[in-house]
Amino acid sequence: MTESHLAQVNVGRIVAPLDSPELAGFVAQLPEINALADRSPGFVWRLVDEGGEEATGIRPEGEDDYLLINCSVWESVEALRNFTYHSDHLRVLGRRREWFHRMAEPHQALWWIPAGHRPTVAEAMDRVTRIRQHGPGPDAFTFRDPYPASLSRSS
Predict the structure, then answer these.
(1) Sign of dihedral through CA atoms 96, 103, 64, 136?
(2) Do residues 74 and 135 lie in contact, with contact meaning Cβ atoms separated by under 8 Å?
(3) What's the pTM value of the predicted model, to 2 decimals?
(4) What does the pLDDT look like over 60-69, one tens digit per residue?
């Protein structure tokens, strides 16, 4: 079996334009949090725009300028969980309601990929759609309902 890595995507609808005063606190922290991810144990890759620093300029097809996407690859669920909930990322995550609308439907998905694969925006959005339509399963799951790589048809 090919070595697997964990891909993650989360989307959020911002409360105002990125260059607005309402989002200034969020935007100011992006370089620090991105650098923290880049040097975190188990980090493999993250989606970035043409400038190579962040993904705030990338929009899923058919979406407006208020939907932001974050996509990254990690060595394991544990590595991603540690970054998300046991690093300075949690400080920013705790303030998400200041910058993002509460989403009524699922906005995150995790899935296993072959090591070396880099998910596209379309692929990532497909995983969010899978969870929205079918709930968590081996090909799109959440931290609450993780599946091992051995059950995934993707890895």
Answers:
(1) positive
(2) no
(3) 0.93
(4) 888 888 999 9
